[in-house]
Structure formats: C-alpha cells, structure tokens
Amino acid sequence: MRYIMFLLFFLSLIEPLHADYRDLFQRQFIDKPWGGAPIVREGVCIDCHTSKIMKADYLKIPQEWKMSIHYKNKVSCHDCHGGDPDDAAVSCGTPHSGFVGTPKYKDVPELCGKCHVGILKNYLTSGHGKALKSRGEGPNCVTCHGAHNTQKASIEIINDVRCTKCHTYERARTMKQALFVVEKKITELENQLTDMKKSGAITEDIEKALFRTTAEFRTIFHTVDVNLVKAKTGEYSSKLSLIENDLKKIIEEYQFRRNFSAFLLVLFTIMGILVYINQKK
Amino acid sequence: MLSKIYNWIDCRIGLTELIRKEFREYYVPKDVSLWSTLGFVTLIAFLIQALTGIFLLTYYIPHPDHAFSSIQNIMNRIPYGWLFRSMHIVGANLLMIILFLHIVFVFYRAGYKKPRELNWLTGAIMFLIVLLFCVTGYLLPWTQLSYWSTTILTSIPTILPGIGEYISRFIKGGEFVTGVTLTRFFAFHVAFLPFILVVLILLHVFLIWRTGFSSLYDDPGICQKAELYMGRPQYKDGKPFYPDFFNKYMQMTFVYLIVMFFIITFKPGLFLTEYAYVKADPLSTPLLIRPPWYFLAPYSMIRMIPNKFLGISIQLILLLLFIIWPFVDIKEEKNIRKRPILLGLFTVAILVWVFLTIWGRF
C-alpha cells in the first residue's frame, strides 16, 4: 500500500511535467516554419493571372516577375498592387480589398517609395522628380527599372538608349563618369565577397555593411545632381576601404589555411616516401 | 625505462610471442598485391572519421536553430576547426571511394568464397552501415543541400505501396524533415551506428585473422575433407606479414593521407555545392539538388525506370543479392578469368554503375 501511495505521488509529479514537455516539444520542433509548412503559397493573383482567361500581353507579367530581384526577396503582386492574395473571391477591380490596380504614370514613385523610402525622397527633389510632378514629363522608377522584370541595379542602366529619350546623352555621360569610381569598387568587393562565400567564410557582417553603404550611395544618384555625386565620392571611397580591410583579413585567413594544409601534404608525402624506401626488397 | 615497462607487460601477457606467432611468422600468399591493403586503409579512413568526428561533436549543436551556426563557428572561429571539418567531409567521400574499390577487388579475387563467406557477409552489412552514416551525416550541417537531399532521400520509401508512407514518416519522425529528424539522425550518426560498426569491424578483423588472406592457391577442398578447422592456410613461399606486408599498409595509408590533403589544399569545395553554404530553408526549394555522388547510381536508376515500384523492387533484390552473394555463387573455381560469364557480368555491372553515376549528374 505504501508503495502504491509513493508511486501515485510520483506519477502526479511526472504527468504535468510530461504534458508540459509535449507542449514545448510541439512548439519548438513541429510548429516552427522549418517544421515543414508547405512550399510558398503563391496566392490567387498568380493562379488567375497565369490562367487562360488572361490576355496575352498580361500573361508574361508573372513570368517576368519570377525572374526579378523582387521575387527572390518575396515581394509579390499584392505588395505593389494591393488586394488580398488569399481571398479566392477577389477579382481585379474589387476596391474593398485595398486593390490599387495599375498606378498612374505620375503615381509610380510613391508606390515604389513605400519600400524604397530614401530613394523616393531624393527622387522627388531631383530634376526628374520635379519635372514629373509638375509637368508629367520626367522619367519615373519604371522608366529606368521596369515594373516587373526588376533587376539588381548598376550603372549599366545609364545608356544611350534609355537616357536620350528626353535630352542629350551628355548629361547622362557626365553622371556615369562621376559614379564610376565608387561603382567599380563596389563591384570588385561584391565579386570578392561571393568568392569568399563560396569557400564557406562567414561574411554576414561585411555583407551587411557593404549593402548599407551601397544603398546609401545609390540613393544619391537619384538626385541626378552630378556635383553632389562628385562631392560624396571621397566619403564613400573611404567607407568602402574600411570594408575592404575587413574582407582582406578573411582572405588572409584562407590563405593561411591553404598553406597549412599544403604543409601537411608535403609532410605526409615525405613520410610516405621514407616508408617506401624502407621496405625490404 | 621504456624497455623496462615493455618487459613488465611482456612477461605478463606475452606480446613478443604474439607478434612473432601472428605477424612475423604469418606468411601472406605470394599473390597478394597493393590492392589487398584496401581493407586496412578503409579501417584507417574510419578511424580518421571517428577522431575528427569526436572533435566536431564537441562544438556541434543538434538543433535546427543552431546547427548551421555551430558549423559556421567550427569553420571560422574555433582554432583549426576548419581542418577537422574539412578532413571529415573529404574523408567521408574518400572512405566511400576506398570502400567501393575494396569491394570490387575482393569480388574480383573471389575473396568471398569458402571459407570466407562470413567475411563477405559482415563486410556487406558494414557497407550498408557506412551508407547510413553518410545519409545521417549529410543532414547534420542543416544547410539547403542537406535539408533538400534528405527530403528527396526520405521520400524514396513512399514508392512502396502501403508501408512506404509509414516508413518515410518513421524515418523523418513526422510528415516533413524537421528538428525531430535532425536529432534522430544525430543520435544515429554519433551513437547507434558507431557502436554497431565497431562491433562489426571487430568481427570482420577476427574473421580475417582466422581465415587468413585469400589467395588463388587456396586449397579448394577446405571444409570438405574434414569438419574441423584446419587453421589459417600457410604460404611458406610468401612474404612475412610483418614487416614486409605491413610496410605496404603504411605506404597506402600515406597515399590516402596525401590524396586527402591534396584535395583540402587545392579543391576544398570539391564535395560541396553552393547550397552547402546556405542555411536550410523549408520555404524555398533550390533549383537543383542532387544526392551525393555515391547515391547517384541508385537515384538515377529510380528516375530512369518509369514504374517506380518496379525500380525500387529491382534495387532491393540487387541489394539482397549483393549481401548473400557468397551463398549464391558456390562454384569452387576462384580464378575469375576462367569464368568468362561472371567476368562479363562483373564488368557490365561496374560500367552500368559508372554510367548511371555520370548520367545522374545531368
């Protein structure tokens, strides 16, 4: 009898603990995202916009979007156009679900500026922004970046096709030259960084710093003020040099590894040869 | 001083005598070659895996939130962690290569024939265990590569009707590859499998010790004339195991180390892809994920045969055949060159394997 009481006492202790643990286990291991929620749901926008009812020149939009940097960063149709991607009853033009539809040419900057805040600010103060707002003439974001097939930005966007629609290429060229020094360094650093990442180095901090600096610098372009860009070149060059130094340290570490492993290689080769020579004929 | 200690031990357990009797006075057959050392090299390769593995174990954290970053720490912050991990990765792949060669050679030399059936049987089971080591170890870094390869691999049993779904769930500990799968694989990789493998290795070595090296000059009538164990076959025209043949062991061990460090020096990423540096993300499926090279042949075979059930059945049958081969091929002739059909089948099997492996890369 005493034993049974004893056992019951223990069971009463264990049971709640056990239940708690189950709960915790469930939360920590099963319900987390890596608990294997099904692959990204793309929502009704894409379902319908890739279906047969879509007209031909709209059909290629989802394809273009799938190749864009926005797709890679999980920016989807409704992030720009509004609407509820989970509501199967939605069809385009139902205003109650916050649907924006196609923005007017003049309103595009605000649409993109929801996320690219700094750029919008600079853009609005620029000659381009002012011309757009006052006369509806300047280029908007889509003129230079496209709406759906948006790619990583670079100075290659500035070319004699795109920039000569409204004025001579002269202005564009001086701008491109002003950007060149810093942009070249950015590209170099980016390439080195991808190389190091491919060897498995932790580059997270450096990556973040580079991303921040690059983004800051590129907002300046959107003022389309050549003098401002020139004035800032020195500042950004030295910022990038700091990042470069951090990167160098990692590269040196990897060179050391290579040398160390080469040393072991030589060592074992010599030992192997000694053993070989030592064998009885 | 040292010799004093040695003598103290020796007069108690008779080391010198043991070495003399078992090694110096054991003559290996004269037709052994460098290939015959592969078994020993496999053992060395396993020991390297065990040692580097124990090192990794001290810093690795088997939890989905920390596994990837703990590996990153090993690679970048812990002194010489990179060395041990590189050795472990490269070593695992080299171990598979050596093991394949060992099996191919033993088969070619008919080393599985009477009285060595048990050697083959234990060896074949060890081969399966090593494959399980690979499968479980692959998931541990918790990268995109490991996550999605494991997802593919664990979905293969679902081809089996009825129980397939259950087996797959059982392996994963649920419907998807999760933290449960991780801890499960971890336990297998560092505790369960090593234990079994060590026991099997001891058994394998014991069997080799009792049966001796296989040779074409072996007496084919063994275990027939008498029901009694006749002792290891003796070859007085061969070379002493120690020091002559042992030297070959050492040579091959260094060749192994040289290859390993050649890869670590010049091509450290040889066995990894870009997805091996990205943390696992169940929400984004990488474009191209293939199983590691040693699984490519069975993998592309399953892909190639339209009826998946047929495909997996063929593989299971082949596997069974592989394990029980010594009991299937019971002819006494040991020289494979005198058996053109077997030699032909053997060559074709290897060619098919190579072809499927290469094909699987596309």
Descriptors:
heterodimer; A: 281 residues; mainly alpha; extended; B: 362 residues; Cytochrome Bc1 Complex, Chain C; two-stranded antiparallel ribbon; 2 strands; 1% strand; globular
Kindly summarize this structure in a few lines:
Chain A is mostly helical.
Q: What does this protein look like?
A:
The complex is a heterodimer of chains A (281) and B (362). Chain A has 281 residues and is mostly helical. Chain A folds into 3 domains: 1-32 and 155-281, no CATH class; 42-98, no CATH class; 102-151, no CATH class. Chain A is built from 12 helices and no strands. Chain A has helices at residues 2-30, 43-49, 56-66, 69-72, 77-81, 108-113, 117-125, 127-135, 141-145, 169-198, 204-221, 226-278. Chain A is extended, with a radius of gyration of 29 Å. Chain B is an all-alpha fold and 362 residues long. Chain B has a single domain, classed as Cytochrome Bc1 Complex, Chain C (Up-down Bundle), CATH 1.20.810.10. Helices cover 65% and strands 1% of the residues of chain B. Chain B has a two-stranded antiparallel ribbon. Chain B is globular. Classes of the chains: A mainly alpha (281), B mainly alpha (362). At the A-B interface, helix 1 and helix 12 of A face helix 4, helix 5 and helix 10 of B.
What helical percentage do the residues of chain A reach?
Answer: 55-70%
Main beta sheet strand tally, sense and closure of chain A: none
- Residue fraction in strands of chain A: under 5%
Any idea what the radius of gyration of chain B is?
23 Å
CATH architecture of chain B: Up-down Bundle
Domains counted in the coordinates of chain B: how many? 1
**Which oligomerization state do the chains in this entry correspond to?**
heterodimer
Rounded to an integer in angstroms, the radius of gyration calculated over CA atoms of chain A is 29 Å
Low-confidence stretches of chain B: none
